[in-house]
Amino acid sequence: MQIICATIEFSTATVTLADADGKEHCACSRGTCPVKSAFKAVDLIVKEPTTLLEYSMDTATEGTDAIATTRVLVRGNALTGEEVQRNFCGTGARMNVVVSAVEAYMEALNKMLDFKEKFLLETSKSLPERKSLCERPKLVIFLGI
Fold it and tell me: Is Repressor among the key words of this record (predicted)?
C-alpha cells in the first residue's frame, strides 16, 4: 500500500490485495484524507456495496511510536432475493494509522463476504456467477505496506 498525503490537494492511495487464490489486484483512488482514499481503493477492488457506519481510533501505547488501534463498522447487503442488511465489525492495530485503519476495514469486509457466501449456501441458493475474480473476489486479504 502506498499513500500520498497532501494539505492542499487530495490524498492518493494505491492498494494491492490478494484474493483467496493468491491473485493480486491493485487499485488507486483519491480522497479527502489518506484513510478515505485507501478505503475507496479497497472498494474499487472488492466491488461490494457497503456503508461505513463507524470509524474510531485509539492508541494502545504512548509516544511517537504508539500503536494505533482502529475499529470500523460497515453495513453490507447480502443477495438473498430480498435485501438483507447486516453490520460487520473489524479491528486493526499498527504503528501506522492508515495501515491500522485498512486492516480493520478489510477484516470487516472479509466477515461480510464470508457471511454472504455462507448465507447463500445455507439457504440453498446458488452463488452469483462471477465473471472474473477481479470483479468479485471471494475473500480478500490485506497484503501490507
Answer: no
